[in-house]
Amino acid sequence: MRSVPSTTSGAPGHDLAVRTRGLTKRFRSGQVAVDGVDLEVPRGAVYGFLGPNGSGKTTTLRMVLGLVAPTSGTATLLGEPMPGAGPRVLPRVGALVEGPGFHPYLSGRANLERLDAVDATADPRTRERRTAAALDRVGLAPAARKPFRQYSLGMKQRLGLAAALLRPRDLLVLDEPTNGLDPQGTREVRHLLRELADAGTTVLVSSHLLGEVEQVCSHVGVMSRGRLLVQGPPHELAADAETTVVVTTTVACVDGAGRLLADLGLTDVRVEGTVLTARLGLVAPEKISAAMVGAGLDLVGLEVRRPSLESLFVELTGEGFDVAR
Amino acid sequence: MSRADVAPVEAPAGPPTRAHGAFGRLLASELRLVLGRRRNLVLLAGLALVPVLIGTVVLVTQDTAVGAGGPPFLDRVTGNGLFLVLTALVACLPLLLPLVMGIVAGDAVAGEAQAGTLRYLLLVPVPRTRLLVAKALAVLVFAACTVLAIALSGLVTGAAYFGVGDVTLLSGDTVPMAEGLLRTAGIVAYVGLSLTGLGAVGLFFSTLTEVPVAAMAATVVVAVVSGVLDALPQLSAVHGALLTHHWLDVGELLRTQVDLGVLGQGLAVQAAWAAVFGALAWSRFTTADVSS
């Protein structure tokens, strides 16, 4: 396992919207679904919670939200311990967990109104307005009166998002929010997330599809087989030792260039014809070009290859992204 | 972490405060859900048809060769329509009322779990104990509705077909119609309260599974098995504690001197079943992982 970059070093716990310590869930079958997870979601972040299907993301979120009791470990939500603080904290949290769940024979609007009616802290006088606004926000206003069972998969998912947005929230926990959405809907959700984040809402969004969250996330965490392998801002993760540099030179200068790269501190230097590749490590790429020119070596091309998050994940999880356990 | 690349944190909204009448709104929402559901309304309508069916059969066959016999009190219906209420309730007790209770109570929690709505109720958040209490009250209200549907339909049908008048008791004494109505109301109340134990059993099964049909069937099985055990004389020692044993004690209300002790015993057994299975449902529901 790779060491987890300490992105919140020194940050006190109350700066974290979600924080878990050694969170573990062992099911009665003996299967360990979540194994010692230390999740840290800073306030104001958009945290992409990534991992293949079956890697333990949803169970982790269920424990954070108090739906499932951890076998061991602790979870705090907005600075308060769960599940005890649920009545105080959960009204400030909007959640979509493992798909939308609504009464099939009630309309979308009636479903939202029920959720609002059972909320002890919601004001019944503003219910109608807030319900309409939430439906409008996810583009469901025209279908508000249709029974839920007549909704398409994408519309159901939108209604789930609308329920999470019934009230202003400090934190949104969205488990696979783009499931069943077409590309247009996925773009809309991304847009919505960015809008909410800009307004100061912390967003914890899980996905098994990297591409759909990569663009909006300020932080990512990667789960595999119940463990949190790595977490932090994407650029820090990508800046890890795996960045490579590709230097193209001429036949006469290949040997000199190889020695120069090694002298600069690059490792794993390989030569193939006139192309040299090496691990960049902590060396600044511009140093290479300056050193090459300074040593009178021909520099035909210089390319820095940062690993995409995708390749990082495949490397970390050791499997394709959609592979179930 | 660098704070520059994330949006500024919104000022905390402050601790949310509970609005007044929150439990009332929760209960009202539960009742709307149970009483507004088409399936449940169909069940009520079906039960209301039972007295109409019985009344019509009695009306058509009276004074014919096949008109005599039948379940208790049936022969009295032609003389006084009020007896149709009792006849219909007694006819529904062995199977139809347990079935309806099983459907509604068994569905209460398991139905929400299956639809995925349970986790969202808990995330609102609705505290688990409060949710269970609201569910239990809604089941009780529906039980009252089922008994009232039969009673009102029986009263209307009986009055229309046979008229109502002074009531002849089991002993042959006659009491005025007003007292007869009062005794009928007592019968309805006793039958309604006799369903509370089964409602608690159904609610408990409902917390065990995400498959509502399983909870419904299990609840009906409990009522049927209770009836079977009640018919075995070898088990007479435990008969008094059986869920269904005292159900037909409702006839006590037609005696000249109503022995409240007999009725109280039946209600006490129901209270005991409701307490035991209510507590089981509570301990299960407040600790269970909601992973549906």
Distance between the termini of chain B: 36 Å
Largest interface, C-beta within 8 A: A-B, 54 and 44 residues
What is the CATH architecture assignment of the largest domain in chain A? 3-Layer(aba) Sandwich
Topology of chain B as a string of helices (H) and strands (E) = HHHHHHEEHHHHH
Main CATH class of the largest domain in chain A: Alpha Beta
Give the helix/strand class of chain A.
Answer: alpha/beta
Sheet with the most strands: spatial strand order of chain B:
1-2
Query: What's the end-to-end separation of chain A, in Å?
Result: 18 Å
Low-confidence regions of chain B:
1-13
CA-atom Rg of chain B in angstroms: 23 Å
Question: Biggest sheet of chain A, in brief?
Answer: 6 strands, mixed
How are strands sequenced across the largest beta sheet of chain A?
A: 7-8-9-4-10-11
The gross shape of chain A turns out to be: elongated
Kindly identify the CATH topology of the largest domain in chain A. Answer: Rossmann fold
Largest sheet of chain B: 2 strands, antiparallel
How many runs of DSSP E, i.e. beta strands of chain A?
15
Overall spatial form of chain B:
elongated
* Approximate helicity band of chain B: 55-70%
The DSSP helix count of chain B reads 11
